[in-house]
């Protein structure tokens, strides 16, 4: 049985974990294949979506010569006789006679026949009312096509749409953009031992992932509606199957917390079997974060939905988000697989044998050095609250001080480009 085959009989042995980087590529490809159809939306509605087609200009930018200063558009040698005024939004008559000038505002169209624009603060009036001064050698206007030629591709498909992209599209003359909508997600919290309010005690622990995971997902550009954060789900197989089936009918991705092992109340794998799910990834050779999974379920409309099984320990769950959910979501958005930056280790970080080690670090923005944090046990969140991401220590290696390693960043801002 391979990681791509259908979930098999109940007592099938767990497969060998696959390499961390292979798992990321595999889930990204699955997301890309399942990316929803593109839609056309009005510009103000596209923030947080993804370009489904390249952004091109409808005209040259600028489309006409545009004055970059307030002053006088002049023809021939001075002094110049004023013959009119042109403001932004107007179409001026051409200057046809030498020795003439029109007053011009910043952003206004430069009239045909103008040889220069004289800044107003560098001009003066002669006694007979003509304009005198010396125009600068550098032209004081923007020429057509200076920013972009007509039809030029400015941004490729797969670019996240943010306010800068929206403004650029508007300047190009677009009223609509063809985009891929933001994926929708739900969170199912598993575990009868969890409290949803108040302090932990008497054998029960406070659920930290129910409030936190939706916030992380939103920072990846995923839509998570409050009604789709559900739990704790009762620790029975029927309750797990029912909750998964209801969520999968509404969203593109269901994240679950806990239940990824094969213990007496770990019902996720049996529930996936009942849903005829297919594993994309079933266990990854990474520490912390073991075990994690991603499965695919065919929806009633024929489109695949996904279940991301996150471990119940809080830091391990976030490792699973960074490892599997981030590249899956990029694929669903029609974006490239996230490229990981590199950082320099300021202190040594041990390896984890045959497993990739994701070590929580804080990155100094001044020099790009990464320092490992304390309080980084699988069940701990104190280190995570101060972290910028995870230093990636490959299998069979140690991270020596001064070595350059990949960084799996945490999504610290909404719409952040990995």
UniProtKB/TrEMBL annotation:
E.C. designation(s): 2.10.1.1
UniProt cross-references to Pfam families, sorted A to Z: MoCF_biosynth (PF00994), MoeA_C (PF03454), MoeA_N (PF03453)
Record field: catalytic activity: adenylyl-molybdopterin + molybdate = Mo-molybdopterin + AMP + H(+)
Cofactor(s) needed for function: Mg(2+)
Record has Lyase as a keyword: no
GO MF, one annotated term: metal ion binding
Single GO cellular component term: cytosol
Gene Ontology annotations of biological process type: Mo-molybdopterin cofactor biosynthetic process
Domain MoaB/Mog: 186-331
InterPro entries per record: MoaB/Mog-like_dom_sf, MoaB/Mog_dom, MoeA-like, MoeA_C_domain_IV, MoeA_C_domain_IV_sf, MoeA_linker/N, MoeA_linker/N_sf
Region of interest called Disordered, as start-end residue ranges on this chain: 121-142
Function text: Catalyzes the insertion of molybdate into adenylated molybdopterin with the concomitant release of AMP.
The protein's name: Molybdopterin molybdenumtransferase
Organism per entry: Micromonospora pattaloongensis
